Request: fold
Amino acid sequence: MSNQSPGGLGFLHKSHITAEPGFNRWRVPPASIAIHLCIGSVYAWSVFNPPLTRELGVVASSANDWSLGSVVWIFSVAIVFLGLAAAFAGKWLEEVGPRMVGVVAALLWGGGFIVGSFGISSHQLWLVYLGYGVLGGCGLGLGYVSPVSTLIRWFPDRRGMATGMAIMGFGGGAMIAAPVKGWLLDFYETAPTYLGAKDAVQTVVENGRVFAETAQGKIEVVIASAAQAAEFGGEAGAYAVGTGNTGAAQTFMTLGIVYFVVMILAAFQYRVPAKDWAPAGWAPKPAASGLVTQNNVHIDQALKTPQFWQLWVMLCFNVTAGIGVIGVAKTMMSEIFGSVMPLVATAAFASTYVLMISVFNMVGRFFWASTSDYIGRKATYMCFFVLGTVLYLSIPYFASAAAANPSLLYLGGFYLATIPAYLADMFGTMHVGGIHGRLLTAWSTAGVLGPLAITSLRRMSVNSAVQDLAARIDPAAFAEKFGAPVAQLDQLVAAKTVTIARLMEIAPAGTLDPTPSLYNTTMYCMAALLAAAFFANLAMRPVKEHHHHDEPELQAVPGE
Reply:
């Protein structure tokens, strides 16, 4: 690829943004952090799960609403394309510079939200996948790699701290996005048409769906509980499907425009240091440990080293353990504690939970990246692999204990156990440019494995729990509650008429709600992945000399 940019885009090329002598390098971190704050909002995706899974029913999911599994995969697709875009754009970034890459990232990330908005408003799921998942995911990848490589060039004396500043913004993006998204959803939402209390409305069940008999004919309805209706200031009862608005489409449109503007402004603040520039009075220090080398490994040669694939496994397993849970964080908190502590684990509390995940994610990224400058990358990874494994193993205990004995003590334990465990993907400090980009294909893989694991394991747990509860309930009580016999259980579940929460309303006294335990198997699997990553890190050794590149290039952050 030529080093010259085509047409009128030449002013974005790195040859036009070389910093003047005396340029203050501390002007670059705010621009990098701003871009990462925008794209980091992807970690607040779980805020969109509830409205997208009831876009038609609004107060509750209707038969034609998208399932949680299909919605979570939008997040997965975005993460997949993050890694792919970063992998393929690594060399391009080195050729054209960060400003051009940042502008393209703004177009893709902001534009992806706008396309997704049209998909939600027209109820075309493929458009949401194309917009947020494919286009937005490519914007994520480009937006992620450009600040990291740029900051390392400006801060060769503080590499861990510099990259920590950038990825701190990525981790903190959800801290801002979670409450903003929640506020926008509340601002744009409208309640659906209320037809009356369940007993006051004549309903029939056809193929698992509930219809209300009205003067205008049969209208499909959802039966909302008091808690569901309270979110919209309404009452329990029947609500007409297809009326009202969750506000998701308008929220997507608003965010797309805002993110585009902020990222464009930030991209134009980028400068690159002049050739052979170095901080005043700084000289490279001698190697501090066996894993740190003063040599370079070519981007193509890196893939031939066992160290690259060890790092790939570490990143993949670590991110898989965190990203799948992050994608359903709000839903998970509501399900585990909403039924046993409804007055505490409200929708607002679940949103705060997502916010706090982002706070710890942001602080943890900067802390671990900066700490690695002093204790070494390998020791740093050992610390949080061990910590993460222990914390994930503790989560099922707190969830099960809360189900048997609802207590703020167990809620607090769960809260403190899960949040640090989500400090998952700070491995953006490993390498720069193209090697870093190719390493992020592990992130793409994790974007599939994490949500696939959690949704599949959750679905198995839900199906098992529903079958078990239905077997305990008197058939006559079941038929009276749902307007159909137990023999139609599968149809009723598929139409979302039968849920664990509604079965618990007629379950025999003393029946333990299985909802808090739906994620136990998932957590054990995530802990096993972190344990595997621990041993991959334990086996890390220096890169052998025959992989070194003879000609001096920009030095990566070896061994990270």
